[in-house]
Amino acid sequence: MAFGASSTSASGQSERSPREIAITLLARREYSRAELATRLERKDVPPDEIDACLSALAEEGLQSDTRFAESFIRSRILRGQGVRRIESELRQRGVDSATYAAALAEVVAQEGVDWFDLAREALSRRFSSPGDTPKERAKRERFLVSRGFDFDQIRYALSTL
Question: Tell me, what does this protein do in biology (predicted)?
Answer without folding.
Answer: Modulates RecA activity.
